[in-house]
Amino acid sequence: MSRVRWAHPGLEQECQAHPEADTPTGWIKNRFETCVHRHYDLVLRNTQGDKTLGRLLFDTWILGFAYDGQRKVDYVVSVRDIKVQTNGSEDATKWSINQDVSSSVNVPASDPGASIDRPSKERRDELLGSWDKNPFWTLTYTAPDKGPLYDQGNRQVVHANVLLSMGVTSPTAPTRPWQQTDVGHSNVRFDYAGPVAGKFRGTVFTEARAELVMKLSDPNVRESARHIKDAISSPERTFPSWVGKSVPGEKEPLHRRIDEKDKDENRKVAIKACEEVWGDYSGSGLECDEYPFATTYEGAAKANGRFSARLIDGTDNGRGGNMLKAVYTENRLLDNDPFYVRIDS
């Protein structure tokens, strides 16, 4: 059968380079793009299972697109590169492929009244020829928008799951179809969290890894990066110092903290540690840099000593803080959302 042009060649080409794309979770590029690419090579048999009807090969793609600025997620789903081999008088033009997309809301994890609006069509069951002529279909899910309620403590968070199942049928074997329940799935979150998330509303794929990356070779944040590197890799070089100390962030995630009072408490504990080691540093141009960051649940106040405080250049410290803020807003990290830190050379 004929080949078709890719719908989103950039994402699909990237997707093909990642083996995890051929799993139900797929390859999650970032908080706003994800893809599943499954290749199937099926042998169809008759109802009794004693006769081979033929062989069917095809590829299924699921491309997911979430949006920073909209309570919306799109899935572009397709069946492509169909090839058939039949035995005897079996007629492959009568074979059909069906796809079913189901969606559900995780009510306990969502805010009260959470719901989603589903597309009018969540099932496609068509003959191979129809798929070959029109391989793509798009499903759009949205969450109702009640306007800005974040000042009242309602971020309108909706956690949802979207799952694709599919099957193959032949009139020769009506009671022996091929089926797979979980071809691909994704977990998405809709929110209207307001300015703490950057754009006031948006949608993300929650299983995506958010990461702050700094380089030791970057002159703008050299001291910030060195401090984090030492805290993670050589905690014995950092203060407070104690035997067996470890600091999270690289393999153990950090979690964003929004509450201003809690952040201030973290800073106070870190500053006290700096003053105990270096004394009065006012007027020096240096600032007390703390890691894990004051804007995390792992900050100094409740870290049980698993933190580091160090005097570094104030300008460098400010630039590092701006990089962290960018990670928060570019990834729509809300309160208690996890993220990681990586320091490159």
Oligomer: single chain
**What is the chain-wise order of helices and strands?**
HEEEEEEHEEEEEHEHEEHE
Count structural domains: 2
How many helix segments?
A: 5
Helix content: 10-25%
Give the CA-CA distance, first to last residue: 49 Å
Number of strands: 15
Largest sheet: 5 strands, antiparallel
**Helical/strand content category:** alpha+beta
Give Rg in angstroms. 26 Å
Ordered list of secondary-structure elements with their pairings:
Layout: H1 9-16, E1 27-30, E2 33-45, E3 52-66, E4 72-86, E5 96-105, E6 123-127, H2 128-133, E7 136-142, E8 158-169, E9 178-191, E10 202-205, E11 211-215, H3 222-233, E12 254-255, H4 260-278, E13 286-291, E14 308-313, H5 314-330, E15 338-344
Parallel strand pairs: 11-15
Antiparallel strand pairs: 1-2, 2-3, 3-4, 4-7, 5-6, 5-8, 8-9, 9-10, 12-15, 13-14
Describe this protein's structure:
- 18% of the residues lie in helices and 36% in strands.
- The strands form four sheets. The protein has a five-stranded antiparallel β-sheet. Strands 6-5-8-9-10 form a five-stranded antiparallel β-sheet. Strands 11-15-12 form a three-stranded mixed β-sheet, covered by helices on one side.
- The chain has five helices and 15 strands.
- The protein has two domains: 197 residues, no CATH class; 134 residues, no CATH class.
- It has 345 residues and is of the alpha+beta class.
- The model has no long low-confidence stretch (mean pLDDT 95).
